[in-house]
Amino acid sequence: MKEVKQIFKHIDQKKEHLDANWALPKYTLKSLLEKLFLEWTYNTNAIEGNTLTINETKVVLEGITVGGKTLGEHLEVINHRDAIKYVEEIVQKGEALSDWQIKNLHRLVLKGINDEYAGVYRDQQVFISGAKHIPPAPFLIKEEMEQLMAWYEQAETKKLHPIARGAMLHAIFVGIHPFIDGTGRTSRLLLNLELTKDGFPPIVIKVGNRLVYYEALDRAHTQKEYDDFIKLVAGEVEDSLNLYLSTINRNV
């Protein structure tokens, strides 16, 4: 925990520097956000097995169809773009996180891919490939989601550093695995929702870190040991802050 606190202190100093020097030209900021959102969309879908490259993802976002790729892979890109817009709306309006919002996010993620289960808690047992953790039985999901929301609303949870709170929200949510499909993508949207509410830039869980990401999540689920996952998220937060800070330096 001491190591994690030191990491947070280091990151907070970078964020303070960013906040104090936040003066990017309009088009620089627009292109920076487009870069982050493209990388977020590509990586979050690639983690789940989408075979579109980052450049193919870019052209799909521009409305172009990529030959040899499935309709589902195209929809995963378009749906994620729409889900990011919804996250931005929630942040701009200052809305509190709710079960209804989570279902809406998931509905956007699975729209046109699996409409029967879009925004609907699963009614079947699922297993996470390669993980020791087994998600709860379907009849327990409603209760466990209520417990998650109760945890989130506690005063002690609100006192957590935004990175710790966002990482734990993500990890606990994935452990419940409330949806048949799209739980991972929804969890990463929730993580960025929590971070951007507190003024952090969106982060990208990179597909290259997939193994470390899965292993840290499994430890969180089986041992209630969250530090490794929190540190992984903190590393991605620092990467995004560094990108913003380097952009500011180029515009000085």
Q: How is the topology of this model organized?
A:
Layout: H1 2-20, H2 26-47, H3 54-61, H4 71-93, H5 99-110, H6 141-153, H7 155-158, H8 162-176, H9 183-197, H10 210-223, H11 227-250
> Largest sheet, described in full?
none
Please provide the ordered H/E string of secondary-structure elements: HHHHHHHHHHH
What is the radius of gyration? 18 Å
Structural class of the helix and strand makeup?
mainly alpha
Domain Fido: 97-235
Organism: Gracilibacillus boraciitolerans JCM 21714
Binding site for ATP: 181-188, 213-214
Active site: 177
Outline of this structure?
The chain has 252 residues and is an all-alpha fold.
Please describe the structure with a list of short key phrases separated by commas or semicolons.
252 residues, mainly alpha, Fic-like fold, 11 helices, globular
Can you describe what's shown?
GO terms for molecular function: ATP binding. Residues 97-235 form the Fido domain. It comes from Gracilibacillus boraciitolerans JCM 21714. InterPro entries: Fido (IPR003812), Fido-like_dom_sf (IPR036597), Fido_containing (IPR040198). Keywords: ATP-binding, Nucleotide-binding. There is one protein chain. With 252 residues, this protein is mainly alpha-helical. It has a single domain (24-250), classed as Orthogonal Bundle (Fic-like fold). 67% of the residues lie in helices and 0% in strands. It has helices spanning 2-20, 26-47, 54-61, 71-93, 99-110, 141-153, 155-158, 162-176, 183-197, 210-223, 227-250. The protein is globular, with a radius of gyration of 18 Å.
